Amino acid sequence: MSTRERILDAAAEILRTRGVAQATTKEIALASEVSEPTLDKYFGDRERLLLAVLEERLPGLSRVSVRPGEGDVEDNLAELAHAVLDSYQRAIPMLGAILADRQRMAAHRTAMSRHGGGPDKAAGAFAGYLQAEQTLGRVGAETDPDAAAALLIGGCFHEALLRYYAAGPGADAAPRTFAESLARAVVRPLR
Predict the structure, then answer these.
(1) Contact 13, 52 (CB under 8 A)
(2) Which whole-number Å values give the CA distances from 157 to 26, 122, 151, 183, in the listed order?
(3) Which of 21, 49, 55, 186 has the greatest number of C-beta atoms within 10 Å?
(4) Residue 114's closest CA among 188, 36, 44, 9?
């Protein structure tokens, strides 16, 4: 296993078990058996490392390949929703502690923005997909892609939060059928 992979695995484990507030460069370096300067060499800063963990170690939109004009819109949105639901369900325990600390949250928000990350990216991806389908005539012209994306993403986040609340970080993954139901509820009125 490469040094970079070892660092990502160690950081992901710390995030999953102790949260982002405890994922210091010192702790990650110790767990991955490298020096802090080695972390900097591979990732530049802590936020870039955390973003790499979120992108590479959590399921999310990067694992889904849907293209406007291909497949069924409802099926494509279900695939996207299921990926985001999985990602949110795994990210909530990692990021929960940071939400309660205004200073850390502000610093995290600034750093993620600087690196092109943040929770708004999923809604933007869904809205972009819907706009492209709208241009192709596969989604109604009166549809508001941003509002439809917000409804779908909001449903995914809500379900992930409820699962975490009910069973903690070990909660069962939401079934694909739930994502399909969300997609159906959003898409069918758009036709």
Answers:
(1) no
(2) 31, 11, 10, 14
(3) 186
(4) 44
Q: At what angle do helices 145-167 and 120-135 cross, to 10 degrees?
A: 140
Residue 77, Cβ density class (10 Å: 0-12 exposed, 13-18 middle, ≥19 buried):
buried
Q: Where are the alpha helices (DSSP H) in the chain?
A: 3-18, 25-32, 36-43, 46-57, 73-99, 102-114, 120-135, 145-167, 176-187
Mean pLDDT by 10 residues, the chain (191 residues): 93 83 89 94 87 75 84 94 87 76 81 75 89 95 93 94 88 92 86 69
Residue tagged 């949110």 (tokens): 88
CA dihedral 92, 79, 63, 45 (to 10 degrees): -30
CA gyration radius, the chain = 18
- Distances in Å between the Cα of 32 and the Cα atoms of 44, 52, 125, 161 are 16, 15, 33, 30
